[in-house]
Amino acid sequence: MGGELIVALNTNNIEEALEWVDRLRGVVNFYKVGLPLYLKYGKKIIEELRSRNLRVFLDLKLHDIPSVVKQSLEVFQRGEVEMVTCHVSGGSEMLKEAKEAASQSGIRIAGVTILTSIDRYMMQRFIGHYLTLEEVVNNLLKVAMEVSLDLAVVSGKELKSIPEEVKTKMDFIVPGVRLEGAESLDQKRIITPQEAVALGAKYIVVGRPITHSPNPLASAGAYLEALKV
């Protein structure tokens, strides 16, 4: 069993991001690059990570008309990026175009369902109907399955309600993961690493609890140890 740790570089400063990466050298080999870093530095941050033989998860959360998303993904060369996120709510046509463009560069598309910063009350305001978060996530996963996405991003809380037959058809990335007793910060729906893996998560994403820790190596090690269930 077990899962993989992805450390989120939650900053818009490349020097700070690379300082975190170098501190974790030899322990962590997979990093999430979000919009702040990518918009400011573009492919430079990707090149820095790849020059260190590290894996890159590019969290762009693309959500636009199909042709724009396709063009956005055509800029990547093979080997630059391992995974890129797109919002499943962009629709099946957008996801199909994204997957087709990404496949040319060996990129896996990860479909984002509901952000972990959104709670049930806010979701009900969006959709105007009293569906639970679990129901909305499962509906979005049906769309992801229709286009055969490789991955989906879900909260660990919703992972509990996903049917087993769905879990056999795609891998899951779970953000909002915290060790027992840790602060949740801006995440509304958190889960422990042990729970995430037991529920079928392939990857967990952790940022500040590692990068802002007084001892990042020890903190990363604690998460890696927790994944060995």
Topology:
Blueprint: E1 4-9, H1 14-23, E2 30-34, H2 35-41, H3 43-51, E3 55-62, H4 66-73, E4 83-87, H5 92-103, E5 108-112, H6 120-127, H7 133-146, E6 151-153, H8 156-159, H9 164-167, E7 171-174, H10 193-198, E8 203-206, H11 208-211, H12 216-226
Parallel strand pairs: 1-2, 1-8, 2-3, 3-4, 4-5, 5-6, 6-7, 7-8
Description:
42% of the residues lie in helices and 17% in strands. It has one domain (4-226): Aldolase class I (TIM Barrel, Alpha-Beta Barrel), CATH 3.20.20.70. The protein is built from 12 helices and 8 strands. The chain has an 8-stranded parallel β-barrel with strand order 1-2-3-4-5-6-7-8, surrounded by 4 helices. By secondary structure, it is of the alpha/beta class. The model has no long low-confidence stretch (mean pLDDT 91). It has helices spanning 14-23, 35-41, 43-51, 66-73, 92-103, 120-127, 133-146, 156-159, 164-167, 193-198, 208-211, 216-226; strands at residues 4-9, 30-34, 55-62, 83-87, 108-112, 151-153, 171-174, 203-206. The termini are close together. The longest helix has 14 residues, at 133-146. α4 (66-73) runs parallel beside α5. β4 (83-87), α5 and β5 form a beta-alpha-beta unit.
Gap from first CA to last CA: 7 Å
On the 0 to 100 scale, the average pLDDT is 91
Strand content: 15-25%
The proportion of residues forming helix, as a percent range, comes to: 40-55%
CATH architecture, please? Answer: Alpha-Beta Barrel
What is the alpha-carbon Rg in Å?
17 Å
Number of helix segments? 12
CATH topology: TIM Barrel
Basic shape: globular
- β-strand number: 8
- Return the structural class: alpha/beta
- CATH class membership: Alpha Beta
